[in-house]
């Protein structure tokens, strides 16, 4: 007797259809990089999108975990990396990744020289074209408390770059991101080593777009009666909204104006920067509109000073203790 397949609930199907439409619209507007999430649903969605597209029209990127969630119980091994890469390719129904990202923490745990040998073999088999070094932390980290590489050892990052020769650095970066430790700024590393930068979470989970554009999320335990994005508190959200008034006087106050300002700020930092945005069908025009307009160094400096002032205020309002080296966001 044939097995019955369970159909997804209507709400799930509607969400997937909306995300697929967003992907298609982004492609029509000129997007050339698609970054694949780690969930099965995101891979199925990407597979549907790629099935109707000439393969060479887009760069397909995905992060492949080189160790298990518990590195002690499931340490790095060549077989594990191969199995996970082939699983991604199978789910996407493609024969190779254009860009395979490995997390810096995984590489440090396994040893970059050991991983380099296996990567050369996988590349030789045509399973991926270029490597990215992923410096980003988990999405629960508050960007003003934890920089993009704050828990990385500078010598470990440099060793990974030298041993693995990545083409791209991946990092969570926005106007709210705390400065990286000396020697670990992703843009400076990219410039020094001739790499590109793939920026994730450029709008800080929409905190930078004002109250009308945010998706409510559970509040911090200290503010349990409220909802606020990214685990921030009510007072922190109010501080962000107050500071956004200064942005409006220079760049405009609509969601589209704020989007353009903060995306252009990041694109201005390095000539080989790609910015990844959330899949939101109603925002695609905002993501792409006006990115070619003039943006000066004075504009970038203005936003840099603005972000520094706001980060200081947000840190002062944060009730949680700062993470230690042993208890970090990573």
UniProtKB/TrEMBL annotation:
Residues 15-260 form the NADP-dependent oxidoreductase domain. Gene3D superfamilies: NADP-dependent oxidoreductase domain. Pfam families: Aldo_ket_red. SUPFAM superfamilies: NAD(P)-linked oxidoreductase. This is NADP-dependent oxidoreductase domain-containing protein.
